[in-house]
Amino acid sequence: MLNRVLPPTIRILAWSPIDPSFSSRFNTKYRHYKYFFSPEGLNIDAMRDAAARLVGEHDFRNLCKIDPSKQITSFRRKILRADISPASVFADESEPDSRVDARPHVYVFDLAGTAFLYNQVRHIMAVLLLIGAGLEPPIVMSALLNVDPTHPALPFRADEPAPDLVTQKPEYQMADALPLVLWECAYGDEDVVWQTDDQETAEDAKAAASSENSLYRQMHAIHTRSLIHSVLDAHFLRAASVFHPPMPESLPSGCG
Q1: pLDDT by residue (tens digit) across 127-179?
Q2: pLDDT at residue 94, rounded to an integer
Q3: Which residues form the Pseudouridine synthase I TruA alpha/beta domain (predicted)?
Q4: Strand 107-113 relative to strand 30-37, pairing
């Protein structure tokens, strides 16, 4: 019923009864973020190398925005997953490759952890983009995590030196916020049991059955319109390149 009064781009997929003491923030087992980006001009293997260095518990003071009002005393956070993979532009992952160019047009950086600092994901992504563009080596990620001179970090692998010690955060622009999505907040089974409405009114059932109110159909229509806009933009860009050839970029897109 709530979906009928919400904007089309905001959908409720399921709900759960909760205990009065439940906190959506503090009861979270882990958070999973996704950051989508174009691979154009980027070395994906180098970015994957750097991302792998994030897994585990580290001090992320060089990879976040310091908020003085929060008076944070510990910058150690635990990362459970950090990997980069191609992202499909189709809702059905089984779509045949013949429908699109075999080369992935979009990649996604998946980052999951038990907790995050302010703008931590965007700072991490900014460094990954710099590494992908060849402006920094993958070992710089290890260096940014190496902040304690009393417990210096060991080499990430046997064939490379120990990372430099970085006790002060370097100046760099964090990645753009638009491609960043908080994809999932995981809760224990004792806290949350997701469900849909089984007992709906006749009016709700009729509305859900109609093509214009079906949740899946609405989201599919939004996806289709976005694909069309993307194709239109690509054609306009191709037309513009005839008279205005692209200039080499000093920074990868997403760092601005």
Answers
A1: 999 999 999 999 999 999 999 999 999 999 999 999 999 999 999 999 999 99
A2: 54
A3: 50-187
A4: antiparallel
Is 86 in the same domain as 172?
A: yes
The mean predicted confidence, pLDDT, of the chain is 87
Rg (CA), the chain: 22
What's the domain range around 127?
29-195
Specify the pLDDT at position 105. 85
Structural domain tally of the chain?
Answer: 2
Please tell me whether residues 185 and 228 are part of one structural domain. no
Percent of the chain having pLDDT more than 70? Answer: 84
Tell me if 235 is assigned to some domain.
Answer: yes
- 187 and 64 share a domain? yes
Longest pairwise C-alpha distance within the chain: 68
Burial readout 41-78 (b: 16 or more C-beta within 10 A, e: otherwise): ebeeebbbbbbbbbbeebbbbbbbeeeeeeeeeebebe
- Are 229 and 175 in the same domain? no
Tokens of 223: 């996806």
pLDDT exceeding 90 applies to what percent of the chain? 60
Q: Tell me the C-alpha to C-alpha distance, in Å, between residue 160 and each of 19, 75, 129, 130, 140.
A: 51, 26, 21, 20, 12
